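As a warm-up, study this chain.
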Amino acid sequence: MSSREDETLARAAVAALIRQLELMPKPGLPDPRDLGARITRQDHRALRWSAKALVPGLTATAACARRHGAATPELRAELGAIGRCTEHSTRLAGGGHRGATWVLGLLVAAAAMDPGARGRELAAIAKKIAAHPDRRAPRRPSRGSSVSAKYGAAGARGEARAGFPHVRRALDVLAKARTAGTPEADARLDALLTVMSTLQDTELLYTAGPRGLRHVQAGARGVIDVGGAGTAEGRAALGAFDVDLQERGWSPRGSGALLAGALFVDALPVAAARGAA
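Now compare it with the structure written out below.
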C-alpha cells in the first residue's frame, strides 16, 4: 500500500522530467519550440502529457522499495514488472519515456528505501538494486541490449550498475554553475551537454552508429569548450549543434533521461520537506 511520501517522490520525479522537457534549446531533443521539422511542439505536448502517466507507476515503485527495505533479487523482479506496466501506460497516454522510466524508477526506489540519502549515496543504493538481474524480464533481447552487445556500450543497465556516473556528473555541473552565478536554465543545459559529451547512448548507436555517436559527443564538448550555454559564443554553438542534429534526425534521448534523473535527485531536499509538511 502506498503512502503520501511515496506519491510525493513520484510527483517529484515527474516534475523533474517535465523540467527537462521544458528546457531549450536541447540539441536533437523535444522542447517547447515549434520547429516545423521532425520534432514539433505537438510532440512536446504529448510527451508532457504522457509524463503524468508515470505517477501511479512511480508511486508503486516507491511503495515496493519501502516495503522491501533492501536491494534484494525479489525487489528487482517486482520493480521490473512495475516498470513494464508503467511503460505501457505512458505509451497509451500518447508518449514514450522508456529511458526516463528506468532512470527515475531506480532513483525513486533508492529514495524510498533510504529517505535521508542524497547525491552519491542515492546513486549507490540504485546501483545495488540494478546489480540484480530482472528474473521476470522477457527473454527476447531489447534494442538497447542488442546494441550494447554489438558495440560493447554500457547502455542503460551498465549506467545503473555503475552507480549512474552521468547523473553524478550532471549534479557536479549544476552545483559548480550555481556557485558561479550561472542562470539556472543555462546550468541545466551545461549539465545536459556534459552528459551528452561522454555517454554511450545506445539509441544514438542504433540510429547513427559509432561515427554518429562520436559526432554528437564532439559537438557537445565543442559547446562546453567555448563557454557553455551561458555565454554568447556558447549559445551560438549550441544553436548550430541543435540544427545539425535536427537535420540529421539524431536524438540523444539517453542524455535527456539522465538529466531528468539528476534534476530529481537535485530537488529531493525540497520534495522531502513537502512530504513531511
